[in-house]
Design goal:
The protein is of the alpha/beta class. 37% of the residues lie in helices and 19% in strands.
């Protein structure tokens, strides 16, 4: 079975770990969000790509859900001693190595997709991880505070401000010129099913969908999503602040409508959101909290089963021994 998944950070990575557990023989391609990418201390940092890579490769800090396990922060402390900014974004010593290698390769002329492939050669995540684009894009947030109305990088709004200052606008800078990375559109075209994990619908999945040609390619496929909203609240993080910024309610219903029926064919919601409905979309309710790999795998299997049911109704059941 050939599966494509769009993924942001922690929620997407943990879902993918469950997906791998229930479909070990499937060919899985992950299209990763790069809107969160930022340059710090002269290094290019790709938080969402690294979270997927570390999680699936066994190097993630399980308690945090991001960063490396058994991490130390000597370099961060030394930078702070020199007064180097920003001090609100903490990179660990082991994590620094990844960003140094990435930046050296980019400076040598390698595109981000080739760099990501090289980094994954060490971690062996069990999936093909491709950035949404090799072109530089960054999510910025327009806010108004004591300094006036201004735009800040998404990471500053998310990490330093903890989304406490209301976002007036969220903009993916560079989206107008960005093209899908090599392999993205072909992977979608070849896919038996596409899954949208429970990642942030605005700044993770939403950014990927802004890259030219990706949404159009997905609309030709069977697409099943897993709601990141349970009972009117995000499962993790501050997705509600992002949804509010674009005028969307924090409900499974509103997120489904945000994605829209031209894109979505199936939608998994939590049991407390069982009334969710949209014409043209098959909605099913089930427990959606990922306590561990087993529960994440159960959600992933439910998404695959839903995709199989949709395809069977159309007479185009997915291929592969894992399809049921």
């Amino acid at each position: 079975m050939r599966i494509v998944a769009l993924a942001g950070g922690i929620g997407g990575a943990r879902f993918l770990r469950g997906l791998l557990a229930v479909t070990p023989s499937s060919e899985i391609t992950v299209i990763g969000n790069t809107g969160d990418d930022i340059s710090l201390y002269g290094l290019r940092v790709c938080p969402d790509l690294d979270t997927v890579m570390y999680t699936l490769g066994g190097g993630i800090n399980e308690e945090q859900g991001w960063g490396r396990q058994k991490e130390s922060y000597v370099v961060k402390e030394e930078l702070a001693a020199y007064g180097v900014e920003p001090q609100w974004f903490g990179l660990g010593d082991r994590d620094f190595a990844t960003h140094i290698v990435r930046t050296q390769m980019i400076d040598a002329g390698y595109p981000l997709s080739a760099v990501t492939e090289a980094l994954c050669a060490r971690w062996e995540p069990g999936v093909r991880l491709i950035p949404m684009s090799d072109d530089r894009t960054e999510t910025h947030v327009v806010i108004s505070d004591e300094q006036g109305r201004r735009a800040v990088h998404f990471q500053e709004w998310w990490v330093r401000l903890r989304a406490s200052v209301p976002a007036e606008q969220i903009i993916l800078v560079g989206a107008d010129e960005a093209k899908p990375a090599p392999g993205v559109l072909q992977a979608i075209a070849d896919a038996d099913v596409v899954i949208l994990p429970p990642s942030n619908p605005v700044v993770s999945i939403g950014t990927i969908l802004q890259i030219k040609g990706i949404r159009e390619a997905l609309e030709a496929k069977t697409v099943v999503g897993v709601s990141p909203i349970v009972g009117g609240a995000p499962v993790r993080g501050m997705a509600d602040a992002c949804l509010t910024a674009i005028g969307v309610d924090t409900t499974a219903q509103a997120v489904l409508e945000l994605y829209g029926s031209p894109l979505m064919d199936g939608w998994l919601v939590a049991e407390e959101d069982a009334g969710t409905a949209l014409d043209g979309v098959l909605v099913q309710a089930r427990p959606l909290i990922m306590h561990d790999v087993e529960s994440a795998g159960a959600i992933a299997q439910a998404a695959l089963d839903l995709a199989t049911e949709i395809a069977a109704r159309r007479g185009t059941a997915p291929q592969g021994e894992d399809a049921r």
